[in-house]
Specification:
Length: 429
Amino acid sequence: MKLLIQNASYIAFNGEKELADILIEDGKIVKIDKKIDTAADRKINADGMLVSPGFIDLHVHLREPGGEKKETIATGTRAAARGGYTTLAAMPNTRPVPDSVEQMEWVQNRIQETASVRVLPYASITVRQLGRDLTDFEGLKNAGAFAFTDDGVGVQSADMMLKAMQKAAAANMAIVAHCEEDTLINKGCVHEGSFSRKNGLNGIPSVCESVQIARDVLLAEAADCHYHVCHVSTKESVRVIRDAKRAGIKVTAEVTPHHLLLTQDDIPDNLDPNFKMNPPLRDQADREALLEGLLDGTIDFIATDHAPHTSEEKNEGIELAPFGIVGLETAFPLLYTHLVLKNIMSLEQLIGFMTRKPAETFSLPFGTIEAGAPADIVLLNLDEEKEIDSQEFLSKGKNTPFTGWNCKGWPEMTIFNGQVVWEKGSVTV
């Protein structure tokens, strides 16, 4: 398959936007030039739209197997393509958990059969994510595991985490951690702060997250392991990670769009459960620390923590509803509108946080537009402006707090491995 993208706005290595043509053949970018005159199976007139590397999201929940009412690999990857994502890393909190070679092979086969974009599956750190017995790291690596995480639950035993890090280091793999000290959760459903007190709700304190990160960075130093922190949400966590990086510890971190854009003060008086996520929305000082940490390199990249749930589950109210929101189809427009257009960061920085930086953090050969690179590309219409409407989502999950938000900068077409997998108004698989 030979594609020719013409008249694309392309951010060159010097950071300047230039008009260029991009020739794609056999899944690779073969040439970028101001004008390419050649025959092609399909010519795409970008008409000055921005061409970006396909976005990379290393924290998503595709729910399959076991949670197919919420999402499947097929529906989740279609949603990803609509949002401009071409590479996902799928969390292991499925039923059954990918904690064995056989189950990892099942997941890999299912991805091959049904995914619209690239999916890199995590394996769990412990059997059934119960924190009692370590999985077969070497076997799971050989079966295609991307990294190891018990996402959704923090590994509570320091001894268990140290042994996991030692095994991961021996296998040259990363430990990826949802950091939460169980004894401090207090059956909370929102952040412990002004909102929880005002509404008489149990709150999750900031130290619940930061204390486990503090423990883990020292364990990672002892094990000489790459340790990655999921969805950082507190100023104390940012401080611990910054100090650990200065000490030369192999720690990296991610932040979500919702923690960059929202605080506990944005939760409406009707206690809309679509504002319930874990970690919870924190304080304004936390949001500011997250932005600062992202911009100064303490936090490495942006990940959505796409977590679909059924409407019935989310309608159970803020105390009983499950944690989590969807994010794949709205991440770029939200961040472009509220960070780039408000001059908090540059367009080049935002695209880097969604492409190049996650790829570099995990040594992935994606996230760039250059000759020889995989042809993973999204065309972005930076001028298109519309409201977020969850009923348009291709994800099964409609659980978002951003319904009705007016945003600019929407994906127009997504190309994965040289194939058009989504274009406005249709899905191509």
